[in-house]
Amino acid sequence: MRSILLLFFFLPLLTIAQNKQITLEDIYKKGTFRGEQVQGFASEDNSSLFNAKDVKDESGKEISTSDYEVSADKKRLIFFTGREPIYRRSFKSTAYVYDVATKKTIQLNKGKILHPTFSPNGTSIAYVFDNNLYLYDITSSKTKAITTDGKWNFIINGNADWVYEEEFSFSKAFQWSPDGAYLAYYKFDESRVKEFNMTIFDNSHNKDYRYKYPKAGDSNSTVTIHIYDVAKSKTVPAKYEQGDIYIPRIKWTTTGNNLIVYWMNRLQNNLKLLLTNASTGNATTLYEEKNKYYVDINDDWNFLKNGKEFLYGSEMNGWYRLYLQTIDGKKKTEITKMNYDVTDVNGVDEKARLVYYTVAYPRPMDRNLFVTDFDGKKTTQLTTGTGWHRIELNSDYTKFYDYYSDINTPQTVTLFDLQNNGGAIAASKAKVAGENGKLKTLLADYAIGKTEFLRIPNSKGDTLNGWMLKPANFDPNKKYPVLFCNYGGPGSQQVANRFGAVSMWHQMLAQKGFIVVSVDNTGTGFRGEEFKKKTYLQLGKFEIEDQIDAAKWLAKMSYIDAKNIGHWGWSYGGFMSSLAITKGADAFSAAVAVAPVTSWRFYDNIYTERFMRTPQENPKGYDDNSPINHTDKIRGKYLLIHGSGDDNVHFQNSAQMVTALVKANVDFETMYYPNKNHGISGSADNTSYHLWAKMTNWILENLGNENVNKTPVGNSINSPKTGF
C-alpha cells in the first residue's frame, strides 16, 4: 500500500517531467506551433489564368509567378519580382504585365516601381517611379508621365511620405475613379520637412541614409490633391482650405465621379469630408466632426451604391458606433446603440439594408458578430459567448466563416449559413472547416500553462483587465518571479480572449518557472472613448501608474516573489518598461526595453501631437514622463535593445537614454543590432533567434529566483554582460 501511495504522490511530477520543453528553435526556427490555415472567401485562386512556363521576360527566362495581381476583367496579370521593402507598408519591385490571351509578357518599367494598379476598366496601369506618377496604356503599349517634378526628399507624387505611411496607414497615394475616367493622387512637397540621417553599416566607409521625418513640433509636407482626367490628359487641383493641415484619406463616391477629400487640422480634433467635383476641383462640405480630444482616422467609410447615403463609424457619443447619413446631410441615423465598441465592419448588405459588424462584447477582451438594419431598429447577435470570433462574410451575405478561439484554445473554423426571413436574420452551422487537431495534439505533449483573466483595481477607482499565466506545475507554496509583458499605447489591446494573445515565448518562460502577466492600462482600447482618451496631453502618466498599481496588487499574493517583478515591452511597450524601472522603481526590479521611445520630443508629429499637441504648447506633458528625465530613480536591472537602422523609433532614443544613464551613474546593459529596423527581425542572418535568446537569458539571470530553471536557452548563447 505504501508503494502505491508513493506512486500516486509522485505521479504529477512524473507527468510534468515527461512533457516536452518549449525551445527557442521551436518558436523562431522550426515553426513547431504553427496552426493550420483555412482559406476563406477572399482568397480566390487565379492560377488557372496562366501556365508558369509561359511567363517569361524579354530574354526568355521564366519569371517567378508566386506574387501577382489580376485585372478586374481577368484578361491580364501583373507579376512582381525582386520585392524590396522600403518602410513598414511600402516596397518596390520589378513588374511584368502578362496577357492571358496572347501569353505575352512585357516589363512595365526598366527600374523597380511602386504600386502598379490596373484601372477598373482594365485599359491602363498607374504606377510610381522615382517619385513621379506614370500611366501605361495597355492598348497602345505607351507610357505617359502624369507628373515630372518628383525628386527625392523634395517632391513625391502618388506615394505617401514617411509620416503619412506610418501614421495614416497607407503608402499608395493615388486612387482610380470607379469607371477609370479619373485618377486622383497626392503630391507631397517635403521641402520644409527636416531630414533625419542614419548610418548604414554596409562597407568599409559605411553609408549615410537621409530621409524626411517630421518630429513633434516640426513642419510637415505641404500636401495637395490632384485629379487627372485620363481622356483629356488634364489635371485639376482639389480645392480646400490650405495651412497646417492633413489629408488622411481620399475616397471616390460610387456615382457621379465625386472625390471625397478628408481634411483634418493639425491638432486632429476637427475632421471634414469635402465632396469634390472631379472636373473642376470645387468642393462642398459633406460631413464635419469635432472632438475635445482627437478624431481617430479609420476606413469604416462606406459610400453606398445608390449615391445618396454613406455609412461610417464615430466616437461622438462616447463609444465607437455606426451611423448612416444622407449625402445631403438632412438625415442621420445611429445604427448601433450598445455601450460597447464596434471593432470591425464585416459587411454592408445594401440590397437588404443591413450592416454586419463585430463588437467587443460581452467583455472588452471578447468579440462577437451582430447585424442591424439601416434604421437601427432591429439588432441580432449572430455569435455568442466569450472568446474571439473573427468573421469573414461571402459577397452575397448568405454565408460566413467564423474563426473562433479563446485565450487557452486554438482556433476552430466553422462555416455558417445566413437566413433572412422577412428581416429576421439567423445563422445556422453548415460545417466545421478546421479544428487545428494537429496543434491541439501537439500542445498536449508540452507543459502548457492555463491562462486566467484578472480584474485589478487601480488607485484611481478604475478596474483594469489583465491575464496571468502560471507554470503548468504551479505550487501555491512557492514564490514565483513575475514578468509583466505590456504595450499600453493609446487604443491598443493585449488582454484579448484569443489564442496567441499568450505567446509560446510566454509559455516557455512559464515552463522555466515564471508567472507571466499582462495588464491593459488606462488609455488602451475597446472600453469607450473616455477610458482610451484619459491619457490626453500626458502620455505615460496614468499608464505607468496603473502598471505600478498592478505590480503592488500582485505583490500581496502569497505565491508572488515581490522582490522579483520585472517589466518587458517593445516600442510603446519599451517606453513603458523604461518608466517601470525609473518611476516604478519601488515595484519593478528589472526591465527589458526594446526599441523604446524615451522622449516624445524624438517621435513623429502626427502620432505624438494627436495625443500630446506640440512640445511648444505642452512642454510639461512631454518632459514629466520622459524616462530620460528619471534615470536617477533606477535601483534595479535594465536592458536596453535597439536596431541602429530603426526608421520609426530612432536609435537616437536609446542613445539619449544611455547618455542620461551614464550621467546618473547607473549601471545598465545594452544590445544593438546594426542596420535593423523597428522589428529587429531576420531568419537568414539569425537576428530573431539571437534577439529572443538574449532577452530570455537576461531575464533568467536578472529576474529568476531559486525556483526558476536558469539553464540558458539558444544553444551556446550564455548572455554575457555587454555595454556601450
Describe the 3D structure.
The protein has 724 residues and is of the alpha+beta class. The chain folds into three domains: 144 residues, no CATH class; 139 residues, Neuraminidase (6 Propeller), CATH 2.120.10.30; 258 residues, Rossmann fold, CATH 3.40.50. It is built from twelve helices and 39 strands. It has an eight-stranded mixed β-sheet, with helices on both faces. Strands 9, 10, 11, 14 and 15 form a five-stranded antiparallel β-sheet that branches. Strands 1-2-3-4 form a four-stranded antiparallel β-sheet, with no helix packed on it. Strand 32 and strand 33 form a beta hairpin. The longest helix has 17 residues. The protein is globular and about 75 Å long.
User: Would you identify the regions where 5 or more consecutive residues have pLDDT less than 50?
Assistant: 1-17, 717-724
Number of domains: 3
Class from helix and strand fractions: alpha+beta
From the alpha carbons, calculate the radius of gyration and give it in angstroms.
27 Å
Span of the ends, CA to CA? 63 Å
Strand sequence of the main sheet, in spatial order?
A: 32-33-35-34-36-37-38-39
Mean pLDDT: 95
Total beta strand runs: 39
CATH architecture title of the largest domain: 3-Layer(aba) Sandwich
Shape: globular
Short description:
This protein is α+β, with helices and mostly antiparallel strands.
Topology record:
Layout: H1 2-18, H2 24-30, E1 68-70, E2 76-85, E3 91-99, E4 105-107, E5 114-118, E6 124-129, E7 132-137, E8 142-145, E9 155-157, H3 162-167, E10 174-176, E11 182-189, E12 195-200, E13 207-212, E14 222-229, E15 234-237, E16 245-252, E17 258-265, E18 270-277, E19 283-290, E20 302-303, E21 309-314, E22 321-326, E23 332-334, E24 342-349, E25 354-359, E26 368-373, E27 379-381, E28 388-393, E29 399-406, E30 409-421, E31 424-434, H4 437-444, E32 451-457, E33 463-469, E34 480-485, H5 504-512, E35 515-520, H6 529-533, H7 541-555, E36 560-570, H8 572-582, E37 590-594, H9 605-612, H10 619-623, E38 637-643, H11 652-663, E39 669-673, H12 687-703
Parallel strand pairs: 34-35, 34-36, 36-37, 37-38, 38-39
Antiparallel strand pairs: 1-2, 2-3, 3-4, 5-6, 6-7, 7-8, 9-11, 10-11, 11-14, 12-13, 14-15, 16-17, 17-18, 18-19, 20-21, 21-22, 22-23, 24-25, 25-26, 26-27, 28-29, 29-30, 30-31, 32-33, 33-35
